[in-house]
Structures are given as C-alpha cells and as structure tokens.
UniProtKB/TrEMBL annotation:
Function: Magnesium transporter that may mediate the influx of magnesium.
Entry GO MF terms: magnesium ion transmembrane transporter activity
Similarity comment text for this entry: Belongs to the CorA metal ion transporter (MIT) (TC 1.A.35.5) family.
One Gene Ontology term, aspect cellular component: membrane
Major subcellular site: membrane
Transmembrane intervals: 367-388, 400-423
Protein name: Magnesium transporter
A family per Pfam: MRS2-like
Annotated source species: Vanilla planifolia (Vanilla)
High-level lineage: Eukaryota, Viridiplantae, Streptophyta, Embryophyta, Tracheophyta
Entry-linked InterPro entries: MRS2-like
Membrane topology: Multi-pass membrane protein
Alphabetized Gene3D superfamilies for the sequence: 2.40.128.330, Magnesium transport protein CorA, transmembrane region
This protein's UniProt keywords: Coiled coil, Ion transport, Magnesium, Membrane, Transmembrane, Transmembrane helix, Transport
Keyword Magnesium: yes
Length: 431
C-alpha cells in the first residue's frame, strides 16, 4: 500500500508544478493585453441591454411654438410622462389603427390620428410620429413654415391690420389685439388642412382616371375595360371610407361642446396658472402673476382676470368655425366621390342594358332559326314518307318528282312565313 501511494504522489506533484509554471508564464501575457479586450464582454452585454431598452422607442419630431424643431427618439414611458396621456393613446397611434381617424382631447394634450398624420399636441409643443416617412415629410415642412410665419415674435411686430391675414381667427372679434388662435389650434388647423387637401387631390386624380375609362367601356365592353373599372371602383370605395372617417370625427366634435372645450389646452393651462397664483397669494389682497404667466396670457387673452377666463369656458365659437370650415370641405370631397360612384353605377346600368339588348337579339335569332327548322322538318317528313318502297300510283306519273319537290318547298316556306308572322303579331320578335 505504501509503495502504491508513493508511486501516485510523484506524477501528482509534477502535474501541480507544471500547472504553476504555466500560470506564471501566462500572467505577463495577460497583463500586456489592452484594457478594451478585457472589458469587451461586459461592454457587449451593456450594449445589448441598451438595445433591449430602446427596442420600444420610436422616432419623433418635436416643434415648439416658434417653429424650432428637433428629431429625437422617445419610448412609451417618456411620451406618457411628457404629454400626460394614457398608454392606450399610444396604441391608437400604432400601426394597428393606421387606417382610423381620431382626435382625442386629454387633460394636457390632444392626440391626433388623421390618415398618416400621427401627432401629440400640447399647449407648448407638438410631437409628430415617424417624420421621415414620405407622406409625413410634406406635412412637417408645411407645419414648420406655418409656425415660423405665425410665431409670437413675428406676429407681435406686425401692424394690427395685417395680423388677421396671417394669424387666422381671433378669440374675441371685439378686440383682436394679441388674441389669435392658440398653438394647439394652429397645429390642428395645419393637420386638417393637409389631410383635406390630400384627400381632395386623391379624389381629383381618381376622377381624372375614371371618366375616360368609363367612357371607353360604354363604347367597347371588353375584359380589359371591365378590369380597369373594377379596380377604379375598389379604389373609390376605399377612398370614400377614408373621407367618411375624417368627416365623421369632425362631426362628432361639432356635436359635442364638451369635447370642444377640452381641446382648449392653452385656456386650461392659463386657468391652472391663475389658480395656482391665486392659491399661493390667498393670504394677501392682490394676486402676483409670474413673468412667464404674464407673457403667455398676453398672447391669448391680454390682461383678462381669472373670473373672466372661467366665465369664458363655454365659448367654443372659434374652434367651431375652424372645424366647420374643414367639415364643409370634406363634405364637398365626399360629394365628388359620390358623384364618381354614381357615374360608375350609371355606366354599369348602361352596359347591362347593352348586354341585355344583345342577348335579346340572340334570342330572336334563335327563335327565327327554330321556326325555319320547323318548316324544313315538315318538308323532310313528307319527303321521307314518299321515299319508302311502297307501291303508289303517283310513281307512274311522268315528271312528278319536280312538281313534288317544288310543292313541298313552297309549302314549307309558306309555313315559315305564317309562323313568323304569328311571332311578330305576338311581339315575340322585333319589327
């Protein structure tokens, strides 16, 4: 037993010694490696975690009231915290509801989902989703130009007479100085104008394509023309549904004054600021307004008091006029779509009448051929009866064959004329 233990201890001792020698040789090599290689694995893990965190972020373009913009990425939690909106509103702006049209009023924001325009509007800024899309780029450029042209600094520098030409409508028609549309209504106006113009142009292009094809179909009913009309009709149905959705959403807002009141974000912001200032100075006899509050209220209501702002909550005339203008424009676009669809229906009726006329002609031809077949069948019956090998005295008469053939043919033709005249008398065949 002792010998066996001694024999095993020698290789184990040598193996431990060799491992220690290898470790001492590798330590200088590891020390000479750069630090970046040693921390490569933790850095890769950190990047992977960051990618997972930013997986739910989307590209947004932010505009302020002066028209300055920046493109940033926000995740859902950042948007919810920034705009104070529920999470379900972000699902409405997602790709699942891309074909829907909605305008929702929240406490501090307006959620706009009109066709391809998906935005969140607050009293101080607007966030536009996916600004790099081809259809959204034109809207972003138009919004930038509109905000730059109607920025508070430029509007206040202009004379009072020229402000109405670029600033839009006023809150109060009696005193328009410094009382233009608030920021949220400016953005909403640009969005509605862009969507209405886009839909109207789409209808115009469809009209330009539909009318020549329909006229060609009336002259030549072919498979190619029928396929083109079918494609135009399907596009028309989809376009009518899109116009109807936007129109119904605006009509829903016009029918409910409470929803329109909730769209006044700037008014609610000023009221909250006045209320906070009033509560802060409740112990004193005067209300001290902050400079930021005074500057903001001068752009909207001038030097109005909190009581006057509170009493003006039910005044939604300016927003109602704004929505009615685009509602009438959408109504006109819808009427154009309906007129095209009515023209298509009329063309289909005309084509069906043509096909029915051809079908009637074929039926009449078939009836005439049937009458002729009946007359020839009688002649064939007589000829077949005399063709039998039966003794008959008529066979002994000279030249009887010629008279027989002429007589049977004349009789068959007479029968044909009689039946044809009867069919015309019964109006089974056109004259």
């Amino acid at each position: 037993m002792g010998k066996r233990a001694g024999k095993r201890s020698i290789p184990s001792f040598l193996s431990k010694k060799s491992r220690s020698v290898r470790r001492t040789e590798l330590q200088p090599m590891l020390a000479s490696l750069p630090l970046s290689m040693s921390v490569e694995a933790p850095a890769a893990q950190a990047v992977a975690k960051g990618a997972k965190k930013k997986a739910g972020s989307r590209l947004w373009m932010r505009f302020d009231c002066t028209g300055q913009s920046e493109v940033t990425e926000y995740d859902k939690s950042a948007i919810i915290q920034r705009a104070s909106i529920p999470a379900r509103d972000l699902r409405i702006l997602g790709p699942i509801f891309s074909q829907s049209s909605n305008i929702f009023a929240r406490e501090k924001a307006i959620v706009v989902n009109l066709e391809f325009i998906k935005a969140i509007i607050t009293a101080e800024e607007v966030l536009v989703l996916d600004p790099t899309c081809q259809e959204v780029l034109a809207f972003v450029e138009q919004l930038r130009q509109h905000l730059l042209l109607n920025s508070p600094s430029k509007v206040n520098d202009l004379p009072l007479k020229t402000r109405s030409s670029i600033g839009g409508q006023c809150f109060n028609t009696e005193n328009c100085e410094g009382e233009f549309l608030p920021f949220e209504f400016k953005v909403l106006e640009v969005a509605l104008e862009f969507v209405c113009t886009y839909l109207d142009n789409s209808v115009t292009d469809l009209e330009r394509t539909a009318y020549p094809v329909l006229d060609e179909l009336t002259m030549n009913v072919s498979t190619k023309n029928l396929e083109l009309v079918r494609s135009i009709k399907s596009n028309l149905t989809r376009l009518l549904a899109r116009v109807q959705k936007v129109r119904d959403e605006i009509e829903h807002l016009l029918d409910d004054n409470e929803d329109m009141q909730q769209l006044y974000l700037t008014r609610k912001l000023i009221q909250n600021q006045y209320l906070e200032a009033f509560m802060a100075s409740a112990t004193s006899n005067s209300i001290v307004v902050s400079p930021n509050l005074a500057r903001r209220s001068s752009n909207i209501r001038g030097s109005a008091s909190f009581a006057s702002l509170h009493s003006d909550d039910n005044n939604v005339e300016d927003l109602e006029m704004l929505l009615e203008a685009y509602f009438m424009q959408l109504e006109g676009t819808r009427n154009k779509v309906l007129s095209v669809r009515e023209y298509i229906d009329d063309t289909e009726d005309y084509v069906n009448i043509q096909l029915d006329s051809h079908r009637n002609e074929l039926i009449q031809l078939q009836l005439v051929l049937g009458i002729a077949s009946f007359a020839i069948a009688i002649d064939t019956l007589i000829a077949g009866a005399f063709a039998m090998n039966i003794p008959c005295q008529l066979y002994n008469i000279n030249h009887i064959f010629t008279f027989f053939v002429v007589g049977t043919a004349a009789g068959s033709f007479l029968i044909f004329l009689v039946v044809l005249a009867y069919a015309r008398w019964k109006k089974l065949i056109g004259s």
